[in-house]
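Hi team,

Filling in the usual template for the complex we talked about on Friday. All components are listed, including any nucleic acid strands or ligand strings, so the model treats them as one assembly.

SUBMITTER: L.P.
PURPOSE: interface mapping
COMPONENTS: two
RESIDUES: 610
SEQUENCES:
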Amino acid sequence: MYSSEAEAVAKGLGLKLGKANLQVFAATVESLASDDKQVVAVVSDSRGSGKLGPFGEAYPKQLVEVGIAEQNLVGIAAGLASAGKKVFAVSPSCFLTARSLEQIKNDVAYSDNPVTLVGISSGVSYGALGTTHHSLHDFAVLRAINNLHVVCPADNYEAEAAVRAAAALDKPVFLRFGKAPLFDLGKEKEQPFEFGKARVLREGDQLAFVATGEAVIHAYLAAEALKKESGLEARVISMHSLKPFDSDAVVAAARECGAVITVEEHMVNGGLGEACSSAILEAGASSCLFKRVAIPDEYTVTGSQADIFHHYGISMEGLVAAANEMLVKI
Amino acid sequence: MSYSDEQLELKSIQLRKSALRWIKHAGAGHTGGSLSCLDILNVLYNRILNVRPETFSSQDRDRYVQSKGHAVEALFAVLADAGFFEEKELETLCCYKSHYVGHPTRKVHGVEQNTGGLGHGLPICVGVALAGKMDQKNYRVFTLLGDGELAEGSNWEAAMAASHYGLDNLTAIIDCNTLQIAGRTKDVMNSEPLVEKWEAFGWAVRRIDGHSISELTEALKAPLEPGKPSMVIANTIKGKGVDFMEDVGKWHHGVPNDEEYERAMAGFDAMLAEKEGALS
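RESULT (copied from the run log):
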């Protein structure tokens, strides 16, 4: 998912390549289940893609298989949660959030059943498998549902913290995980994970990248590349929570940096960029420059996740170019 | 208290009056389907379910999820009668800021799950029944479906899962009134042959008269067969109890005008007088 130049920048910074967030999710759920027999994972023929095979072997009574039936997955999860189980409903995000949207809306969120919905292989993780398997609508549709946290962790620390926080919350949560190994972005001691609270990964006052999920590392590397290239100090914010949304962090970035670029592995409509733009406008901070880097309103090009990121500029190189183009206007 | 069959028949008429009264008061509601399922709800709440207002939060209670949420007026009439809330609260049914919405919501004491969109009740109940098995609890789980509702594919996903997991603590009931909003169910999307379909999905199935207190009691008092989920197909009449509404599709969500309302209530009163006379 990274160009050789980006990897070189990461290594130069001493960043360590960790696991895929999906693997961290599976290990964390296994850890939770060992302490609490009420923890249950519900899967739709997705224990393999969810890395839950070992979980199923270790805790067979805590894994419910529903077969390829995502509506049923979410309905059953809601019923289990209403009877006291701590439920993780796990399915590829493309199916979980489109095929089961009414169940998410009614059975989970509206009925306030504390299910943690886990969208795996999200965004364009499935790459060349194409549009049927891409999940580029999930922020948009789930942001429009009341009583549901929408969370997209950027690295292994955020992933584990988000799973544990969701299990402890006793409210409906959607967690979005990708498949690519991710660099550890650090800073957890200074800024512990909290739903609705953005994490500032890099300080800066000349530009702000506000990014989410697997796009965050690219923004981080771009900020470092800009520093090396032109001495520019860019702030990097991991906006892991699309809901609840940390408007204050975005508005502060707009006011203090004067230029904001949002970055997300999601269609441009209804995602992080729109959430940020409305926060900035409502706060009266709209004098800042603003650009959304996301998948445009088109069927994505064929290729791996890395190819698709590169094509649409969700990459260190693409974000450096976007920043330079924007800052020429100042 | 325990009721005789005759007393429950009497209560069904009173509950139908209540449902129709509040539909008329609200000026909105699903009349036909509420009247068709009232005997089923009456038997469930007064004979079968281990559910009481004072113990509703108990994890050991039986669960009833009304999948056909549009028949909420029947549910509210039964819950009020069972003491979950004062019936006069239904004066706010469908009013601004009322919790008594035109579909079941958990803000109303006694409602297990929010329903309204069709095809949701059975999957939820599979989850509740699975949890009961996991926790070795003895509660039973019930849901009420419409025959038109069976066109929603989620029902069949849940049907497969219920038999796969041998959920004999789960009973589904079909309020089979053969009508849906667009016409005869057999013409809109034929769901028959229901017995064969549910048997093929691994369920124990019984088809009964859904207006017979004794047949409902017999079918619902215990799981039909160990190791299998139970399906009770209750043959009912849409608009049951009001001569000009019975088996007439337009009363799916028709609200009677003043004259129709008086005529319907007079009909119920005549039935009550006859029943009360027979009982005294």
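MY TAKE: Chain A has two domains: 4-16+192-327, 18-183. The CA atoms of residues 199 and 238 of chain A lie 5 Å apart.

Thanks, L.
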